[in-house]
Description:
- The protein is built from eleven helices and 13 strands.
- It is α/β, with parallel strands linked by helices and 347 residues long.
- α2 crosses α3 and α3 packs parallel to α5.
Amino acid sequence: MLSSPLDLEELREVSLYQFQNDHDLFKEILTLSEIFNHKRNDLNSAYLNEKQISAYLAFFFGTNFPKVKKCLQKIPRELSDEINKQPLVEFGCGPGTFIYGLLDCYPDFKEIIFGVDQSKIMLDQAKLIHSKKYSEFNISFQSSIAGIPKKSTLVFSNSLNEINEFEFKDIVNKIEPSVIIFLEPGTQVSFSKVLETREFLFGNGYNVIFPCASNEPCAIENEPMNWCHQFLKLTHSESIERLCQKVKKDRRNAPVVFHVYSKIFKLAHDQVVFRCLPETKFSYEIEVCSQNKIIKHRILKKKIKELGYKKKDVKDQLVAGKTYNCKIIRQIKENYFESLPEGLLKR
């Protein structure tokens, strides 16, 4: 299996193409970034040759791989155990980023895994990693969903934006998954795409497991300039971090849209941090999604100091996507409270 955190030299060992020097690699990564960020209509052109795929593997696979484990750790234990016991299919798998990230989280996974992608060269790259690092796992890489068993876990990882609403519904209706996972970029566009699926999923017996508090309508679905995402703080190896520095891109702070739906369980978080507002001279301010309502909390710095805590102790708990367990000190006004994170009260 690939090491965790990933090392750039290890990724070179499983690349379809070997760059002659670092300069060529950096140049190719910047070209891909331009396509992903500003030329989405030209996205297919990024998958035309082994050189481009290998640049994708070094940078995007290398920095997205740790996101998977971080996100899967947010799933309740009961559902996590169930996922570990059933087939899994990733639609739009690319070189297998989510699949191999999942195996880093579930190293004892025994069921069959399907990676589906229309790009033959992406599948060639995924198969090469499989043969060299994961041959003990039963993984099938293919260009369609034909032959995939029902009642599996269905994953969309950076791929929901590549299909329309009707294609999504068709895939779900054919596979009838028991669990659906979205792991998409933390952008307004990605959130809108995930939000489009909710009514269909609820109408077909799915319950939201993360990050929403219930199956009620989203608190911000009618606010076109607002969107919900989670925030991951990632750690990379020295070689991957050096690569990020060379191409001048921060991949340690990762916004994502991570949603989980299930027909098996009905579990939800009570309060999840929706947004961290600008820090004031006297307080930290956050917005929390609770029972699908946006509620604001103020955490006074003087109270934290009185308890003997430092700034870092609090800020580590105030991250978008984390569950916010707190004690209410007083109500300031409607849907606005002074509170303290529960963990600070247990010292």
